[in-house]
Amino acid sequence: MLQNNPRFVMMLMALLLLVFVEWTNAFMTPTTTVRSDLALNLSSGVEVEDVSRRQWFVSTIVTATASWYGERVEAAPTSKVLVLGGTGFIGSRVVQQLQRAGISVTATSRDGRDGTVALDILTTDHVVDRVKELATGCQAVISCWGAIGTANDNVINSASGLAAKGAKAAGVDRFVSFGIAPEVVQAASGIEFIQPYIQGKQFAKQSIQSLFGESGVIIEPTFVHGGDSFGVNPPRVAGFYGEFIEGILSSSPVRAIEGALPRGNIIQVALEPPISVDTVASAAVAAALGKLGSSVSLDTYDKIKEVAGLL
């Protein structure tokens, strides 16, 4: 019977070979191009192809086996993401989560540390062209650029809008950035020093939505907590304390009160739960990888949590 069915023989051989590869993998550490110090370091950001030789070998077997049976197999394109501001509070977590997902990452920082590409938006004359160059070949760009309480708030927070223009010119499919929750904008309307920050964020949001439409995702939390320390400028709440407050404010009784208040009311803003930096990063990665059916502004605690759960 086997002699009369060569395809069956080839299929059987391929499956036996695949079993052998999986068996030997239990006794051997797979070779990978990812440096462990980069995969575990929160401040890392480097262009890296996280594809092991074993993965390539198994993929080749499966593809060849399917072709013997006359099935057409489409090779999945290598996913590559550009992270702007990849060593910051949110950006470092974004890079880490992308690497864990096996995504090739190019990350930027102001000074090019930790293997990142140097890109200082305050000293770079042609931000659009530079982003276009770096984004070429990427499926998505995640901009983590942002600042508050500096003399350059407007310039820095507007830069994501310029980056969107460069990404669009490079043929990028999706663009993800971070904005400011609408209720915070409304509640802070009379606070003068925060207006450059808000104006920069709003310019970036309008630019991204104009250029990318539903493929542009703006994540707009009220307050993000995380890390080991507290800070005043920029405002920062340590993770252990933030988790405690988040647990209280996300409880059903408090959410019921918060939901009954007009959005933008100062009390409503105060009762909106803060959100973990890791959750925000997960939402950004999920959006960049196209896990959203249709992209909208993630402008509430619940929306961000829901999208983060897709990763």
TrEMBL record:
<protein>
    <recommendedName>
        <fullName>NAD(P)-binding domain-containing protein</fullName>
    </recommendedName>
</protein>
<dbReference type="GO" id="GO:0005739">
    <property type="term" value="C:mitochondrion"/>
</dbReference>
<dbReference type="InterPro" id="IPR036291">
    <property type="entry name" value="NAD(P)-bd_dom_sf"/>
</dbReference>
<feature type="domain" description="NAD(P)-binding">
    <location>
        <begin position="85"/>
        <end position="210"/>
    </location>
</feature>
<dbReference type="InterPro" id="IPR051207">
    <property type="entry name" value="ComplexI_NDUFA9_subunit"/>
</dbReference>
<keyword id="KW-0732">Signal</keyword>
<dbReference type="Pfam" id="PF13460">
    <property type="entry name" value="NAD_binding_10"/>
</dbReference>
<dbReference type="GO" id="GO:0044877">
    <property type="term" value="F:protein-containing complex binding"/>
</dbReference>
<dbReference type="InterPro" id="IPR016040">
    <property type="entry name" value="NAD(P)-bd_dom"/>
</dbReference>
<feature type="signal peptide">
    <location>
        <begin position="1"/>
        <end position="26"/>
    </location>
</feature>
